[in-house]
Design a protein that fits this description.
Helix content: 25-40%
Strand content: 15-25%
Radius of gyration: 28 Å
CATH architecture of the domain at 186-383: Alpha-Beta Complex
CATH topology of the domain at 186-383: DHBP synthase
């Protein structure tokens, strides 16, 4: 007989792991016990060596759906052992090292129960089990026990208690378990305070009544899992436009929810990988190609939302204002019983967008929702289960055969990742992230924990939420940072807060260059060991603070985790008006033409072009003075702003954008695929390569000359967009070819928000692979600033590694 202690680290609490241990121990005829503690799960077993070995093997192959074993260790147990059976012990609180499970979409078994009239969970909107339901959104502390969640407010009834204590039941120790008799309840309210009853709209209940309201064209605020959403019928143009005006979200696309895959397939193509994502326990928003777009070479969406696009979308019954200027729709499936019940008889998609005013965090509290959303929603569907942690919907897409995460939140956060080989003996590190699309990152004992998406910190409410979430994570993970990593930009609120925390607690601070952090984040998720040779990192984005005090955004860096060398960049061009250039693309067009010394030529050769006429109406003398004197017009090597400039030149979002990247996204959407795939030099805009002051520079001047000629020749926007993307990709590939040959590199990282452009990413990747170069891209974490904190954390760790 042998007796062992088995320690399991990973996502192993609140996911039915202990019942699985119990079942397998019984099947293998083992005696002993199992319990949750701060480190994960602790198992003690006694039996034959063969039986214990079989038990360990089956534990790893028969893991519950939501569980993940990161590490399993076995040692001989030499303590007192007096078991004649196998039992499950209460949780033990000690040093916190375990993981917190992500919120999980309703499992098939629970779905069946809520629609089964003979089940006691029939039409119960908060049905869950160990395979699904709320986790991060309701937790205050760990171990993950009911008393440490917002479910502590609900005393469990005898029927639920029976299931909770039945080790053979899938609700065994399911902390949020509840039913009609003892759990949270949902109710319907009118925004104007007048009385309302479900019988006015439904023969069933308040939840079912929401479906009728949506079909009638009403806007309903729905309290869900990690926040409150605003919903309306996505096929009713009047309702969608009303939502846009009230929410003050004028162009940014809305997310959609549909009852099932069959409804989605009426509007979009869905491949096997996309279907897998939609139906996964994470249940993210998946960006899908609108039917009839891919490969037809037609101009479905233009900056003016052309009639052809509107007519085509209308025939599919999706309101044209759902996703203006785009050829994709963001769909998700119901992920809570509440959503399943609302959509039961809804045969068309609904909009389900964050319940907030533009740029503010999503509401999570009932009173807050009534105050802030009362002028937007006509009705409220609320409930009395408190949301502890705000968790937005995650957004992903499939590029080629690889998943690309755009926003990492519900369903994915706060799952930890193991750091690559070499990252050991580290102090606890906190990385503060960026100003936009913020996340923060905790590093501890060889793993990184990235927070859910927080948002843009320039909004005061978002910054407050950022601080609250930081404190919550410190508590949940008992994290006491010994080092803080921040972005080098002196005006980022995250950097300022990091400095305050470092000063207050007298701990060391590391300032990390923005694009180096992007590259390091991609290296980390691809498992590049600490002491590997440098890679060539290509970081393209809107902007980041450079080591020389200027703004960077189109960088080629020779980098490892500790340091980098800037080998090449794009030609720096003024951002006239500073931040105004992000939202008024024409400013970038004018700055580019001035930098290329083509403006005087425009006045003569291209005077009749719409873009030239438009620019001539602007106060050019004043703009020239701003650039000449450097007044609120910093130069930036930003590829994001280059996209804006080209888009405006060909007539896309010329006057203004309501969100960053709108013009670039719209230009990607109109690309003529046949032009893109037809490789001819005449179909590619050229770029120059200049070597000066020990650095290469990509100069777009010849591209602008060719583009102006095409505009004059009235070449279709779709073709010009294709030629720009192809030309830019070729310029990047050519630069990489030179740098790799000169520096003996064969591994390239593609990162930064610009590489969320599928066309550019695919074209560059294909070109580099043709040269035999290994290409590393993002998948688990966003290429945009949402992944920046991971890079900050590992760079700080690498720089410290020899000190500990």
């Amino acid at each position: 007989m042998a007796t062992e202690e088995i320690r399991v680290h990973g996502t192993v609490q609140g996911v039915g792991f202990r019942p699985t241990v119990y079942r397998l121990a019984k099947a293998c005829n083992l005696h002993g016990d199992v319990c949750n503690d701060g480190q994960g799960v602790l198992i003690r077993v006694s039996g034959s060596e063969e039986a214990i070995t079989e038990f360990v093997a089956r534990l790893q192959t028969e893991c519950p759906p939501l569980a993940r074993i990161n590490q399993l260790t076995r040692i001989i147990y030499e303590g007192e052992f007096n078991f004649d059976n196998f039992v499950i012990l209460p949780s033990v609180s000690n040093v916190i090292k375990t993981e917190i499970t992500s919120d999980a979409a309703t499992c098939p078994q629970c779905q069946q129960e809520i629609f089964n009239p003979f089940s006691r969970y029939y039409r119960y909107p908060f049905t869950n089990c160990t395979h699904c339901g709320p986790r991060l959104s309701i937790i205050r502390a760990i171990p993950y026990d009911r008393c440490n969640t917002s479910m502590s407010a609900f005393a469990i009834c005898s029927e639920c208690a029976k299931e909770y204590h039945d080790v053979e039941n899938r609700r065994f120790h399911a902390q949020p378990v509840a039913c009609h008799a003892c759990g949270p309840t949902a109710w319907l309210e009118r925004a104007d305070g007048k009385s309302v009853t479900a019988s006015m709209f439904s023969m069933l209940d308040d939840v079912d009544a929401v479906c009728t309201l949506l079909q009638k064209g009403e806007i309903v605020a729905i309290k869900g899992l990690g926040g409150i959403h605003l919903a309306c019928d996505a096929t009713q143009e009047t309702a969608v436009e009303k939502l846009r005006q009230r929410k003050r979200r004028y162009h940014k696309p809305f997310a959609l929810m549909a009852r099932d895959i069959e409804v989605i397939e009426q509007y979009c193509t869905v491949n096997a990988k996309e279907k897998e994502l939609l139906t996964s326990s994470a249940a993210p928003i998946v960006l899908l190609q609108v039917k009839g777009r891919e490969g037809d070479g037609k101009n479905l969406f233009t900056p003016n939302y052309c009639r052809d696009a509107i007519n085509r979308v209308s025939t599919l019954h999706i309101a044209s204002s759902v996703a203006p200027g785009q050829n994709t729709l963001g769909f998700m499936l119901p992920y809570t019983p509440l959503h399943h019940l609302i959509l039961r008889r809804m045969n068309r998609p609904i909009i389900l967008t964050s319940g907030n005013l533009a740029d503010e965090p999503q509401c999570i509290d009932n009173d807050e929702a009534r105050e802030k959303l009362g002028a937007i929603a006509d009705y409220f569907l609320l409930h009395n289960r408190e949301i502890i942690n705000r968790v937005d919907d995650s957004v992903v897409r499939v590029v080629g055969d690889k998943v690309q995460t755009i926003r990492r939140a519900r369903g994915y956060a706060p799952a930890a990742i193991s750091l690559p080989p070499g990252f050991h003996n580290l102090p606890q590190i906190l990385a503060m992230g960026s100003e936009l699309k913020n996340t923060f990152c905790l590093l501890r004992e060889g793993e990184a924990i990235l927070s859910q998406h927080i948002g843009d910190l320039e909004n005061a409410a978002a910054f407050n939420a950022y601080q609250d979430t930081l404190n919550l994570y410190f508590n949940l993970f008992q994290h006491q940072p010994e080092v803080i990593a921040i972005d080098k930009h002196p005006e980022y609120l995250s950097s300022k807060l990091g400095k305050e925390l470092a000063d207050t607690n007298q701990i060391k601070i590391h300032q990390i260059q923005h694009h180096h952090a992007h590259i390091a984040a991609c290296m980390t998720e691809n498992g590049i060991p600490l002491d590997s040779p440098p890679v060539l990192g290509i970081a393209l984005d809107g902007l980041g603070y450079g080591d020389d005090g200027t703004l960077w955004g189109g960088e080629f860096l020779l980098a490892d985790y500790r340091k980098f060398q800037r080998l090449a960049t794009f030609k720096p061009v003024a951002m006239i008006g500073g931040e105004q250039a992000i939202y008024q693309p024409w400013r970038n067009t004018y700055a580019q033409l001035i930098a290329a010394k083509l403006w005087d030529n425009c006045q003569q050769q291209y005077a009749d072009l719409e873009i030239v006429k438009f620019l001539n109406k602007k106060p050019l003398k004043l703009l020239n003075q701003l650039m000449e004197k450097g007044i609120n017009s910093p130069t930036a090597s930003s590829v994001g702003r280059l996209f804006d400039a080209v888009a405006a030149a060909i007539g896309i979002c010329l006057e203004e954008c309501s969100y960053e990247g709108q013009a670039a996204i719209a230009m990607e959407a109109i690309i003529d695929v046949s032009s893109l795939n037809n490789y001819k030099e005449t179909l590619i805009y050229p770029f120059d390569f200049i070597f000066s002051d020990s650095i290469y520079c990509i100069d777009p001047r010849p591209m602008w000359q060719a583009l102006l000629d095409d505009i004059q020749q009235q070449v279709p926007q779709t073709v010009m967009a294709a030629k720009f993307h192809k030309g830019l990709a070729n310029a990047i590939v050519e630069m990489v070819k030179r740098l790799c040959q000169e520096n003996l590199i064969n591994q390239v990282v593609l990162t930064g928000g610009v590489f969320q452009n599928c066309i550019l990413l695919e074209q560059v990747t294909k070109g580099l692979q043709t040269l035999g170069i290994k290409v590393l891209t993002h998948s688990l974490f966003p290429a945009n600033d949402g992944g920046l904190s991971l890079g900050q954390a590992v760079i700080a760790a690498a720089q410290l590694i020899n000190c500990y």
